[in-house]
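If you are new to this repository, start here. Below is one unmodified record pulled from the training split, so you can see the exact layout before writing a loader.
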Amino acid sequence: MSTDPSPRPKSSTPEMLTGSGAILRSLEHLGITDVFGLPGGAIMPFYDELMASTAIRHILVRHEQGAGHAAEGYASSTGRVGVAIATSGPGATNLVTAIADAYMDSVPLLAITGQVFSTSMGTDAFQEVDIVGVTMPITKHSFLVTKPEDVPATLAAAYHIATTGRPGPVLVDVTKDAQQNSAPFIWPPKVDLPGYRPVVKAHGKQVVAAAQLLVEAERPVFYVGGGVIRSGASKELLELAERVGAPVVTTLMARGAFPDSNHLMLGMPGMHGAVPAVLALQESDLIISLGARFDDRVTGKPSEFAPHAKIVHVDIDPAEIGKIRAADVPIVGDAKDVIVDLSAAFKDAAKSTKPDYVAWWKRLDTLKAQYPLGFTVPDDGLLSPQAIIQRIGELTGPEGIYAAGVGQHQMWAAQFIKYERPNAWLNSGGAGTMGYGVPAAMGAKVANPDRVVWAIDGDGCFQMTNQELATCTINDIPIKVAIINNSSLGMVRQWQTLFYEGRHSFTDLNTGHGTAMVPDFVKLGEAYGCLAIRVTKPEEVDAAITLALETNDRPVVIDFIVSRDAMVWPMVPQGLSNSSVQYARDHAPEWEEE
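And here is the target side for that same chain:
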C-alpha cells in the first residue's frame, strides 16, 4: 500500500533521519498541510523539526482539547484527516474528550502524542500517562512507537486506519528517545495490518433483496445517517431518492446529506425531530437505513420503534448491524457503493413491480401541513433564539459552514438552518461535547478559508473553549461566533422545567440576564481582539449578522440575549415511544421519565 500522494524518487541509500524528522517527513508524504497542537517536554524534539517546515502549517492552540476539536472541524468540513498534536501526560489526556468525540461521530482524526523516554516508562515518571491504554476503547487503534525506524510504517498505518472503512481516530504515541534517535527513513513503508480488511463492496444478492422490498413496500422511508456524508455519497443519494420517490429523513449527523429544499425531504427524526420525520419512521412498513446506527435519540424506546417496518440496514461497520434493531436485509459495505448498486437494482425490479406510494404521500403531506416547523415568540420581551438562528442561516446562505456547541442551540441550529450540501453542518452528535463549537469552527475555517464559518454556541458551551479566540485572532482565522445567551444551561433547564417540577438546580450561569454579566462576553471578545457586539432587540438582529458577515479581518463575537424560557420543540421524552412525540408543551400529557 502506498499512502504517498506524490512519492519521492527512491535513492539507493535511505536518508538518515531522527524519529522526529521521520514524523515530519511522513506527514508531508501523507499530504498533511495543517496541524493543531501545543508543545511540551515529551514532544519537543518533533516541534524542533516542525519549526523549519515550509509544507505544514502549525496552529498553536491554547488548550489541547481545542486542538482535537479543531482537527475534527477540519476533517468534518473536508473529508480529509485532521491532525492534533500534544505532549505526554496532561497534554495527551486533554485530547481524550476530542478523541472520544471523533470516535462516536466517525471522524478521521490522527492524534500524535509525545511520551516519556522508553527507559522511564512504568516508573511514574514526570508527566507519564499510559495514553495508549487510556485511548484504546475510544480509537480505531492506538500505537506506541519506541524506535525511530518504526515511525514511517506506524504513521502510514495510522493514516490508513483512520481514513478507510468506518473513519475514526487513531493515536500514535512516540517516546522521546524514539524522536531523538536516528534511523534510515524508508518511504513508502511496508504496512502490514493483519485482520484489518474493511468491506467496501456489498454482496449483490443482498442489494437485490433490498430493491425487491423497496418496490413491494407501501410506506418506505430512507433513514439517512452520517455515514452517507463520510462516504461522500450525497449526489448518489439524491439520484436514488428521486428515482424511487420515497421520503427521506436525515439524522442530526446527516444534516445536509440530502437537500432540505427537495420535495422528498421530511426533516430530521429523533427526540427533537420534525413531527413528519418522526411519525414517518414510526408508521413505515420499510426502513432503508443508510449509514445510520439506530441511535437511542432517533428510536426513542427501541422495542416500540417502527413496529411494522422491515429493516434494510446498510453500514460499513458490521458491528452496527443488528446492534439495536434486527435487520431483515443486512448489507455491509460503503454507503456510496451500496447506494449506486441499490439504485440500479431498484430500476430493474421496478420494471416488473411498479411501486405505489400515493396513499403514503397523502398521509405524509397531511403531517407536513399539520405540523410545520415553527416557534412561539417569547412573552418576556427577550429575543427568540430560533428567529436569530434562522436569520443567521438565511443571511449567510447554504455555502456557509455552521458548527454548533451542544444543547438547545444545537437543536435549533439543526432545525432552523436550511442545509443544501454535505459538510456544512458540524456538531458533536454521539458524545454531546460542550465546548465543541468554537474550536471546530476554527478548524473548519483553516480548511475552508474562503467560506463563511459560524460557531453557534451557548453561553455554557462558549465558556469551555473560548480561549481559542486568541488562536483565531493571532493566526488570522476570522470565524463568526453567535452566542445564544439565555444565561443558563438551557437544555438541562428545559428538562428541569418539564420533568423536575421546575426546580432549576444549578443551571443559572449569570451571563446575560439582570445586571450581572459574569463574564461580560463583549468585553471578553474585545480582550481577545475580536469585534464584539451585544444584541438585545429584534430590530438589531439583522444589522449585527450583516456586520459580522462583512467583517473578515478578525473574529466576530455576537452576544444575543435570548429568553431563558424558550424550549426545543418537538420533543419525544426519553424512554418513551416515538408515537408520543409532542409538537408543543401545551398539547403534552403529564410526562415521566422511565
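Two things worth knowing about this chain: The radius of gyration is 25 Å. The chain has 23 helices and 20 strands.
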